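One chain given next:
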Amino acid sequence: MADQKAFTLELRDDQVAVIHINVPGESMNTLKASFASEVTHVLQEIEQQRDLQGVVIISDKPGSFVAGADIGMIDACDNAADAESLARQGQAMFDRIEGLKIPVVAAIDGACLGGGLELALACHYRVATDNPRTVIGLPEVQLGLLPGSGGTQRLPRLIGIQKALPLILTGKQLRAKQAKKLGIVDDVVPATILLEAAVKRVLSSKAKVRKAKLPVMHRLLEGTGVGRGIIFSKAREQAQAKAKGNYPAVDHIIDTIAHGAEKGFQAGLEREAKAFGELAMTPVSRELRQIFFATTEMKKETGAGDTKPRPVQHVGILGGGLMGGGIAYVTAAKAGLPARIKDIREEGIVHALRYSYELLNKKVKRKHLTRAELEATMLRLSGSLDYSGFAKADVVIEAVFEDLSLKQKMVAEIEAVTGPDTIFASNTSSLPITQIAAHAQRPENVIGLHYFSPVDKMPLAEIITHPQTSAETIATTVALAKRQGKTPIVVKDGAGFYVNRILAPYMNEAARLVLDGEPIERVDQALVQFGFPVGPMKLMDEVGIDVAAKVAPILANELGERFRAPTAFEKLIEDNRKGKKNQKGFYTYQGKKAGKLVDESVYPLLGISPSAKLDDAEMAQRTVLLMLNEAAYCLAEGVIRSARDGDIGAIFGIGFPPFRGGPFRYMDALGIETVVQRLQQYQKTFGERYTPAPILVKMAANNERFY
């Protein structure tokens, strides 16, 4: 492979040059600085040709145009100047492509992201396939960066500032038809005729840099300094409402686009390269890049060493409730597998089918999906009141009520109607898998597969093993979860597993803050400011106060007094406050501001007169320290296999602030000694629940880190 090139040139008889991209030894094409000499050589050869009619740039990897730049290049930079130099190299290369005197067409099939889209934007035209794997976007913001090879300047120039800003600020990925509607793509064609369509576009076009065709109102706003000022001010306000000042890339993106709009294209590129260099060195970008590397690494792992997963062709699902319906959806829509739903009532099956239909129909309305794709997905879903159709299930996922005897009954019934290799995966959130498998004939096939609600959105799945779970069962379940679009972490059996276990002390402490008189909205605001997507009291409403009340004593009985929840919250259950599910919790769920205003009647119920005493930082520290401490316990006890898995589990399972890197990277950033000192200070004030985990005390004494 050392002799193979990533960029090769084909000169066709019709006087069209085709640049083929095929990075050797990789499943996806990514751009590396080491390719610069290859691209230079190819462009020199094109520039020397006298009779060329145009150029097509195409990938030889089906389903992958260019997935972006190699992030490892940024990690290898020692300082901002190095990273800025990387951006300038990319800019210069793409300027040269755009400057060719003959038309250049990007023929896009598959991922066209980041540097891949910046390459396509430097071409004069873009033709994309209708392949579902074709996605187009600039996701750099999700790595704490901005597009560094001209993307901040070319996309606004092509489609207008108002359309480009939200795409760059969110990193949103578009399907080909959406990209065409916005004006990013010129044609959408079947993959089988992509090259032919691109060549046709070359032969019928001229080399020209096109500018956005804007509606009159957009033109009036974007065409004046005052109008642009309004656009950028509004964009900053909306972006920071979500970012809370925690993501410096947001302001850099807006400033860079604004600079280019005011001072011109070249000045914009200068600003872009400088900002790219600065952002690459920020702790925020560093942590976000580490998450990217970790998840990429996890995609290659089976969860069971060298053991290969068994093929899965049919999935059975027990229970058609909210979780069962969500599991059926990700099985049929994401994994593309037939899913057979069993429920004891027809209403349950209807609910599960309707759940999938409504999610798919939203995608059709937004042009993410065709009506034919919706119908094909729905045909993969079926249901019954008995076990007919379950005999051929390779995996049965149980999502029934949290009752041990019921789940054990489900194991026995599934073992009676399925083959000897069928896996029984329980979507339990609190019951130990060891107990669920206690009476199983084939305990090696029993495993936990814990999804998070809503299943269609939450990216994590906990794969819970008990001592008898076989390696093949683990590998097969991990592979299925990945097909369903999940990032799975393998955890050891035990009360709360990992995610709920680290969440419980955090939630309990937030509840204590409220009982001490801190206003509910201020507690939530403090943790949102810290970086969580939603505050702990709002989260309790979302999860269900009744669910939290049921799980709390299980954790306390298994893990000790540090998990004991405040007894005052029993009054909430007596008042039938279950949260969002019955429109009665800490927040009100009536009217236009449903879920946004605190239900003031909760204060007298709990005997509280709210009065703000603590600042945001203090409330965040008190709650988050307990989460960090419990994560350390989980690592020491082998509940999680590594600090990496613990970080990914917390980020993808409960929304731990990604820019802080996860509990373990955050403890490293604070310093383990600092974490221990703060825990000990609170221990003196609030008692034993703040006792530092022994692993932390030992690491602090030895000046150790998790990474």
User: Anything to note?
Assistant: The longest strand covers residues 16-21. The chain has a mean pLDDT of 94.
